[in-house]
Design a protein that fits this description.
This protein is of the alpha+beta class and 72 residues long. The protein contains one helix and four strands.
Length: 72
């Protein structure tokens, strides 16, 4: 996802991802994007995250469900 510039109360902030975390400088947002520090994968019952390109969709019969992310 590209870095977005957001104006809030007359101040420019930068945002990577839709989680709402705002950064004061573009370099902070780029660092978060590069390190994925602004995004945490949701883990299932087995405490493991889903594969790249998949997202956690809950647990069914004690097993985690990972579904493929649709790309537009």
């Amino acid at each position: 996802m590209p870095i977005q510039a957001v104006m809030k109360n007359g101040t420019r902030y930068y945002r990577y991802n839709d989680d709402g975390k705002l950064y004061t400088t573009m370099s902070e947002a780029e660092k978060a994007r590069d390190n994925n520090s602004g995004y945490k994968k949701k883990k299932g019952a087995d405490d493991k995250a889903c594969w790249e390109g998949y997202r956690f969709a809950g647990t069914e019969n004690g097993k985690d469900k990972c579904v493929k992310i649709k790309k537009d």
